[in-house]
Amino acid sequence: MSERKVLNKYYPPDFDPAKIPKLKLPKDRQYVVRLMAPFNMRCKTCGEYIYKGKKFNARKETVQNELYMGLPIFRFYIKCTRCLAEITFKTDPENTDYAMEHGATRNFQAEKLIEEEEKRIQQERDDEELNNPMKVLENRTKDSKMEMEVMENLQELKDLNQRQAQVDFEGMIDKYREIEKREKERQKEEDERETKEMLERALVKRLRDSDSDSEKEEESRSRLKKSSSDKPTDILTSDKQPETEGSSASGVKKVKVESWERSVGTLGGKGSLSSLVVRKKPADSIKKAATDEANAAPTSHTDSKTNVTQNGSSSLSLLGAYSGSDSSDGE
């Protein structure tokens, strides 16, 4: 069984390659190739612009009876993208470029024409100087004379411009530098002033905040001090609340006092519970009351008085306390 992919062919012993018939192809045979436009061109039929680099499916053929140093020249056929007119151009190995042949005109070729004309003139001059030494001397004299004329014309133009302009360029540059320096200084001063103002605003704000915090602390301390100085039993003896307190606090305290009076009664009046609370008097008032009571007593009690004085100061103090309690009941 033979291989599926055969690389080597079998040649019989009597094989003669000269007996194989050759394929005869025409010399002007054309091939289809893919290329890009080598230059900008404009169609002569419709005026459509075809820019360099646009891709075409072109037909390529070899130009008959035309060679350049043994190199063949090729011709390309393309069609206009708008009117489908045929455009042809061929290679130019002499100038390493392409030459427009038919159907369109090449654009932007003025610079190339100028360069070609300069090359032609230079070539003709070199040929003349090569065979004629006097022509070399004449050309050198002509070139030096032309150079002197050009320098004189340039100097005249410079003098004319100086007379008409009368501009001091050095002064202008110095003035511009001075203005730029002033502008920089002004900008620097403005930046410093703005920075200073911002710092002052921040300092004032900080001082205000600290003052407000200190005021709040003082108020809280005064309230705490005031609340600590008040006694819990002041509500029993005070009839009126201080006016400095708020309306809500005074109303609450007033309600508490009223409920206390309804349940217990007032201590300042002659209520049923007023005799339960006795205010303490100083010792001097107690002694004075005791002596007044002793002087006002009748003579029938002299014996009892003598006994009392003999018992000592303890009984006198008890009598004074008793007489004090009587006087308070009478009041």
UniProtKB/TrEMBL annotation:
Residues 312-331 have a biased composition (Low complexity). GO terms for cellular component: U2-type catalytic step 1 spliceosome. Residues 235-250, 297-311 have a biased composition (Polar residues). The keyword Nucleus applies. Residues 182-331 are annotated as: Disordered. Keywords: Metal-binding, mRNA processing, mRNA splicing, Nucleus, Spliceosome, Zinc. Component of the spliceosome. Present in the activated B complex, the catalytically activated B* complex which catalyzes the branching, the catalytic step 1 C complex catalyzing the exon ligation, and the postcatalytic P complex containing the ligated exons (mRNA) and the excised lariat intron. Part of the spliceosome which catalyzes two sequential transesterification reactions, first the excision of the non-coding intron from pre-mRNA and then the ligation of the coding exons to form the mature mRNA. Plays a role in stabilizing the structure of the spliceosome catalytic core and docking of the branch helix into the active site, producing 5'-exon and lariat intron-3'-intermediates. May protect cells from TP53-dependent apoptosis upon dsDNA break damage through association with PRP19-CD5L complex. This is Splicing factor YJU2. It comes from Oryzias sinensis. The lineage of its organism: Eukaryota, Metazoa, Chordata, Craniata, Vertebrata. The gene is YJU2.
